[in-house]
Amino acid sequence: MFATKLIVSIFARYNNQRGSSAVYHLFKGKKSGQTIQDVGLFQLYPFFSITPKLTKAQYDTYIEEIFNAQFILLTEENVVVTDKGRQLIEDFRPVGFDGWHYRGRESAFFKRLALVVQTLSNAPHTMRFLPIEQDGVTQRFVKDYLRYHDFQQPAFQQQFTTQLMELVASLPVEERSKQVLSYRLSGYQQSGYTWQQLAVFLDEDILSLQLRFTSCLHSMINEVRNYPLLADLAQNIRIEQLLTQSTQKTADLFYKGYSLEQIAQYRRLKTSTIEDHLAEMAMNDPQFPLTQFVPEELVLAIRERTKQLQTTKLRIIKESVPQASYFQIRLVLAAKGE
Amino acid sequence: MMELQQILQQRFGYDAFREGQQEIIEAVLSGHDTLALLPTGMGKSLCYQLPGYVVEGTILVISPLLSLMQDQVEQLRQFGEKRVAALNSFLSFDDKQFVWQHFDAFRFLFLSPEMLASDAVKNRLQQMKLGLIVVDEAHCISQWGFDFRPEYLQIAEALPKERPPILALSATATNQIMRDITHYLGMEKVSTFIHSVDRKNIHYEAVETTSFEKANAIIQQVTQFEGPGIIYTQSRKRTMEYASMLQQVGIRATFYHGGMEQQDRMFVQRQFMHDEVDWICATNAFGMGIHKNNIRQIIHDHLPQNVASYMQEVGRAGRDGGEALATLYYEKRDAERTLEMATLDLPTDWHISRYMACEEPQQLVEAGEMTETAFRVLHYWMHQLAPLQVSQKIQELASEKQQQVMALAKIITAPCIRTQLVAYFDEELLEKPKNCCSGCGLQKSEILAPYIEKNEPKVLENWQRRLKHLLPFN
Lengths: 338, 474
Description:
The complex is a heterodimer of chains A (338) and B (474).
Chain A: H1 2-14, H2 21-28, H3 33-41, H4 56-68, E1 72-74, E2 79-81, H5 83-88, H6 99-102, H7 106-122, H8 136-148, H9 154-170, H10 175-183, H11 195-202, H12 206-222, H13 228-231, H14 245-255, H15 260-267, H16 271-284, H17 296-309, H18 314-320, H19 326-334
Antiparallel strand pairs in A: 1-2
Helix pairs in contact in A: 3-16, 7-8, 7-12, 10-12, 14-16, 15-16, 16-19
Chain B: H1 2-12, H2 21-29, E1 34-37, H3 46-49, E2 58-62, H4 66-78, E3 84-87, H5 93-101, E4 108-111, H6 113-116, H7 119-127, E5 130-135, H8 155-158, E6 166-170, H9 175-184, E7 191-194, E8 202-208, H10 211-224, E9 229-232, H11 236-248, E10 253-256, H12 262-273, E11 279-282, E12 297-300, H13 307-314, E13 324-330, H14 334-343, H15 349-357, H16 363-366, H17 372-384, H18 387-412, H19 417-424, H20 444-447, H21 463-470
Parallel strand pairs in B: 1-6, 1-7, 2-4, 2-5, 3-4, 5-6, 8-13, 9-11, 9-12, 10-11, 12-13
Protein name (chain A): Helicase Helix-turn-helix domain-containing protein
InterPro entries (chain A): Helicase_HTH (IPR029491), YpbB-like (IPR008308)
Organism (chain A): Candidatus Kurthia intestinigallinarum
């Protein structure tokens, strides 16, 4: 049910202006101009790339169920949230997510956490156990961490446990989401539970449980600062470099003074691609020199018309402000500020 | 040899060798090329693990399957060995770097046959001191084996001229396969050790049924007699269906198949090993790396593809020496169906023409036009033979597969299953245990204790309690 509510509430934010695969691309973290731009436009940063492993087939089955339950209508182009759908999400607050800053990398944090918990749990009994995480990078990270903190000392074990309990207690997510997290961990003679097993016990579908799990991890890493023993496990997980790689290259050239056309020529990319990059930059950088591309009065005109028309569809805005190019409209919509 | 006993106890914590192990180890240590057949569950790995603490130089282990390799590395680490690593194409860049930098410092080094083909690896092997070369699952070298891996044929080429002895290991092999192994590996003056494939404590049962009755019969059996056990089935969907049917009658069961995410698969393995679940409903992806001694039952709901894989699967039962039952439910049409499945992994004439038409034939796998196994076979033979001969070769392989399926079909309906199983591997059965097999007549209740219901908590604990149980430190 959690996933249903989340998906319906995102379609509601799209305000009937996007088709059914929009949420799929958002959840997968697709790096195309449209998806990235929508993230800024509809303020969907928290939900970007929160299920990188989701397949289209899984998603489509899910959408079909939501449709069958009459929470949404599918028109040729758009998804429309029904009254029943609006009722469903009335009290729903999808807290905890911060996909924009993690994009799947939270799983590396969880691997470290899982291996530390397993080691500490086994420590009083045996040091010969099969590690739950097989990959060498995680194993070496955790080995260094445990050695550094002298993990055999009861003082460390107690502090770690206290910090973990306090951190989880402080998270804004539902109790059930925390429960899912706790059962994906394993320890001495206590295995973790598969998604399928949790689905049976909690009577909730797998995608919902996975989303709950992700929201838990995101909020954990965001709150980790005050819990130093856990903060050490969250090293290099958060993405501070927010531009996609290709956009970063364009940005470097742009701020050296190259023009749009020069960049396209130099990088051997289409002008439209460079325009995508500039839109992404406009979205992420409050200092972006918008007026270099769009005169002040046109910016105001576009913003005003957008508000009046209650739309973000480029074509409709363009009809209403014919003197602006599509690129200019996109930039204005993408740019932060009013 | 007092010394071996000591190492066995100090390093591995065992009081005594199991049948066959000591002779094999002694042969290896006296410098002989050695071929050893030990049935699944008889402690094959120890035959090279122990020499690692006697000989000088690295023990090089060539192993066909990634999961197997990983499992063996973990096993050694559990025995407290730190100088152990595996090099294979699935390693991350960092991991590969790490292994490469410490290449000759390892006591045990596991390589996939593909890795062995690289010149860089070959050079490195020439320069370092090797103590023993182990070829695990050596039957893969024979095209008559059920698991032919063409890369295995190139092993001999990659080995240094001046080499230490080779130890070739396999669970089962016919005479023909044994000849292939020693020939293609270039082994000389081979000491051969064949441990009987017969496991006295495993009782074989074959039951003809209909698809309509099958599931019920299985549930009956599981609710009547003790586990733990494994139910092998052919499709991922069936694993889930069986698991939920068993759960509904109160059995602690879950499922396992190759399509599940890595972490979930790990959880299921651990739950089984820790006796948190009693029954696993699985495809043949389940088994490798399951070191569980007290499995009492193996149930098949279909006819497996060949005798060797059947033996491997039932061989997972009764490793503690206690009595165990292997039941195979089959339908009249099973041989036909199984054959269909088996030939899915063989290329066809159409594949040959597609292969020749494609600049990068590997794409055929990505496009889903052929399975990976089929591609591996085709790719190898296309480099060895002319297209027309390849077609012929593949027909030979297909008819071989058919014979293998038919052989197993015949064995399970024979007057004595055990006698025929053993005969298939060119052995003679000297003695039949009580309740030998369904052919000779068996009483399940004399083999297995009755099922006792286990009380499973029906709800999960809240997160606070769960975390406290995992980390009881406050």
